[in-house]
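Hey there, shall we discuss this one?
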Amino acid sequence: MALTASQKLGIQGLGWVVRRVPQGPKGLVPFYQSALGLRQLRPPGPTGAVMLWAGDLTMFEASTLAASSDAAARQNEITVLMRTRQFERAQTMVNAAGATRIGETPGRPRTVTFTDPTGMMLAIREADDASPHAHDQIAAAQWRKGGTTLPNTPSLPSEFQDVAAIALRVVDPVAMAAFYSDLLGLQPMGTPSAEGAILTLGRAAALELQPGGHRHDIPKDRDQVPDVWIARVYDHDGLAARLKQRNVPIVTQRQITGGKLTYAADPEGHLFGIQQRTPDLLPEGAKERVEDVLARALWAAETG
């Protein structure tokens, strides 16, 4: 099997989406459980953050936003797009949970954007099995096989499959596409232009770069940024060294329970992360998390 450029760097795909609000996760969690059917994996962590399963290998973390000078300017530069197999019923679920409808994007695949009760943006997108894009084809193949299931975790409701894309509003989609393609090996799908760019994030998710964003100063800490996406990787140290060699600003580096995590900023100041989960870093006697066991098994199959 031929590996993609990102797989050669040890990148499996979209691993985590972190959404932070000043009020903390208490109000976010019930909404996302009701609106999208996301499943809580375990009790809140030491910081109070709550981890929800969002389909495939993507975890949705609800957390607390720390005070910062530009938090308001950064809000809503990221939209999480959830892939739905039952478009009308999915809209009903999101509306009933208390979301505010912003509008529908013209054309196909059908996409409707909302804000959640805290004002953060999310969208639902109709699955497009006829799409030529790799992530859509992978999603279609997974669906035909019954979808990705997480051990000891209830399946998502039939209306939803997984996170289809992370939409990031930027100043210069062409320059940002070149940055993420060169740095992380994310493959552009089509030719990037001033109107936007789509890059595969691995597996069934994409990174969509849309015009209309802003340049930001480099944040002092990850907790000061409302939204961030994190790639699941298998060579954290090598990739972190690659970031430093390319003079990419490192915002936060942490060793966490069972893993390593680095947050960095792109040339416009948008935050992204890389995280590796490994049993080697677990405390003695601690059990590995079910999503990490599944991800590592799938990675072995994908790259072996």
The longest strand covers residues 11-21.
